[in-house]
Amino acid sequence: MRHAMFAMAGCALVATAAAAQGIPSLTHERYTLDNGLTVILHEDRSTPMVAVNVWYHVGSADEQPGRTGFAHLFEHVMFMGSQHVPVGAFDQWLEAAGANNNGSTSQDRTNYFEWMPSNALPLALWLEADRMGWLLPTMDQAKLDVQRDVVKNERRQRVDNVPYGRAFETMLGAVFPAGHPYSWPTIGSMADLSAASLDDVTQFFRTYYAPNNATLAIAGDFDRDSVKVWVQRYFGEIPRGPAMPARPSLKEVTIPRDTFLVLEDKVQLPRLYYAWPSVKLFHADDASLDLLAYVLAGDKNSRLYKRLVYEMQVAQDVTAFQMSGREGMFMVSVTPKPGQTPARMAQLVNEEIRKLSSQAVSDRELARAQNSYRAQFLDRLASVNGKADQLNSYNYYAGTPDYVRQDAARYDAVTAADIQRVVRDYLGKPKVVLTVVPEGKPDLMVKEMGDVRIP
Amino acid sequence: MKRLTPLVTIATLAAAALPARAQAPRETPPAPGAPKDFALAAVRSFALPNGLEVTMAPYGITPKVAVRLVVQSGNIDETAETTWLADLTRDLMLEGTTTRTAQQIAEEAAQYGGAVAFNVGMNESSIGGDVLSEFGPNMVRLVADIARNPKFPETELARLKANRLRQITVAKSQQQQLANEKFLSVLYPNHPYGRMFPTESQVQSYTLDQVRAFHTANYGARRSHFYVVGRFDAAAMEAAIRQSLGDWQPGTEPVFNAPAPKTSRVIHVVDRPGAVQSTIYLGLPVVDPSHPDYVALRVTDAILGGSFGSRITSNIREQKGYTYSPFSTINPYLKNAYWAEIADVTTNVTGPSLKEIFFEIDRLQSEAPSAQELQSIQRYLAGIFVLQNSSRNGIINQLQFTELHGLGENYLRDLVRKIYAVTPADVQRIAREYLKDDTMTIVIAGDRRVIEEQIKPFGTIME
Lengths: 455, 463
What we know:
The structure holds two protein chains of two kinds. Chain A is of the alpha+beta class. Chain A folds into two domains: 29-235, CATH 3.30.830.10; 259-444, 2-Layer Sandwich (Cytochrome Bc1 Complex, Chain A, domain 1). Chain A has 16 helices and eleven strands. A six-stranded mixed β-sheet of chain A has the order 1-2-6-3-5-4, sandwiched between helices. In chain A, strand 9 and strand 10 (328-336) form a beta hairpin. Chain B contains 16 helices and 15 strands. The longest helix of chain B has 18 residues, at 371-388. In chain B, helix 1 (85-93) crosses helix 7 (208-218), helix 3 (136-148) runs parallel beside helix 8 and helix 11 runs parallel beside helix 16. Chain B is globular. In chain B, the strands form three sheets. Chain B has a seven-stranded mixed β-sheet, with helices on both faces. Chains A and B meet through helix 1, helix 3, strand 5, helix 4 and helix 5 of A and helix 2, strand 8, helix 4, helix 10 and strand 13 of B.
């Protein structure tokens, strides 16, 4: 026993020195079954754990107006059992194997995942295969109706009954033009959820839930030969589906002039939101925009936090982020303290943006932002669950599962001049400005920007 | 003196319960393979002469290290007049030390690839961070400086009070927070466990002298434990800890203020006119982790409402669609805990939700679960245990929990075995003994006018 422990400590030291600051690569094997299912295997034997992660390349951006929220509602229905899995058994069987499971839906994809002690791997694969191949034989109105109610409660709990809960979907609808697939929220509208029919479920499954539109990533402790046998046995007989409908190519989004909106809500304090159309994931300016968001509001020494929250004490909180998928949007929000107005916040935010456009950030500011991103990359790779999702994500967005070091390198390559440039190129363009105000106080709305010329 | 905990391995899963089946195609799920033993992180612990305990555990392959200084002090050390003084003390400790400004603290941590996490809890407070491995010793020194040498700048006091007041205002606009506050105040009257928020005038009254006194009384080596988990240079980390905390004042042992929990079957309504959902808190005080029944209580909770496949969740979510995120939980304070089922349900099914929750509690009391249902949940908890011990901060959480509740060094080694030792009769007994319907406290935050008729049958509504 003692021997084992000292051996372990010794390994740790050597590897720390060698890996130093490095981001590990995700060595993997990728292959495709005859039915088109892409399989990605990554072995990591450091703990007796394994993760299964399935991506279907369909999300809310594939929905039609009038059926918003359907991709996510469908995700819920996927947990209601399939031909060989009774209602309720999906969770119960996995939990009985010591496994956790969940799923999520974004604009671009839907994922399903299990993470568990490694001996439960065949069960997880079998369950994923059953719902990929045999969901419809036992699908019925009752399954749809109960999950429709659950999803409506999810919307109430996350959006309608939460302070500022409707701000994000309001911004989406204003930044992206009507009919643009990013213009509606993934959760959908209550009316569209009510309209979803059993026929929609059948059509959606037949259109999108085919092995040729899915990737299966497995990361963790497994024997590669055994896994390949299981994957072939469970998934191999699922028939290939039709080719995916072509996704409309997304036109560049521009806003002709600053747009001002107001939303009355059950809130104590108003909050000011800005949103600019930006760039998609892996665009040449995407990493610079991520780092810009950090420089603006990422930590206590960030520009907006330090000045508005800490020094002047006029704001309660500030946020900034670059959201990027197949489209991008850059957002900033500021909550004024009582007695301070959103208009005053707008003036200060504009001043800080102007400063960033006229003078480069310091080396230390840039290094802090870059170190924070390096730490985040490591965190995402810390669990087998995180690794499996990263493999699928990179495979989808970058075309290769092992892209993490190239991804990290994008952030190392950003210079102070890049940040200054993206401020001018993106934050200098027209934007959407939304003020969420307490009910009965629409006068607090920010209605104009004044002089915000960016050099 | 050094103490070595041997590397222990745990058989986390019982042998397959399902009979071995032929590999029939598709119709039946594959039986699980043979479980592998799971190795807990090898832990090395030692104490410094001033009483500070240190525990270090190499873990994982990611070049990061989590450090955390845990001080056994928190809101429990407040009086009825000083709620959140512990939190305000924390806020001021982050405003700078005798040699670092607040900005420098934040900037240093960011340079190390992390941030300072300083959490004040009911029984414990912790200062730490998860940083790139090469900066581990630097992070130790930063954490030690924050704990030991606060500057307590008077200039920041008014701003920090105002921040806390805004935080209260924002929290009180959230229905779940209001329900939680009411629930705690009913269960733990006249005790810090029952005080979620201070009043505005209280916060305004706090002085810098009170903050200084709180720090002096509660922060010291004898009630503290330093944890290091991840990839690190053990010699460098130990040296940094000895150098930066070896001469920290010992301070006093913690003084425990025992709670006298109360519960009775009445309904407390927090009125939220127009609310589209009702937030339900339904529960009561139960035994704490040091009690022999605690493990069986956890198993019972997981069957009843504490897992996706649990009875209450299946009933009110997967069969009826009343709610999105129902769950039950045991919240373990030192020397007392509470069990609660918590759910945001559509307003018009508030009464029916209560009916189903009680139905499931009663069913477990009147009939022991099947051996198969129990074994399923035991395997689930064993699997969760592996997950909980598979991240740097997860491992620290486990070690910290063991230490706080005085569970002994074999606790983590034996936990899985104890989970599997629980019998169906135990679960039924636990449900009867601890989850008594007739003393269950019910709190509902929602639209009183709409729900009143629905909830009346479930208890007297408090005015």
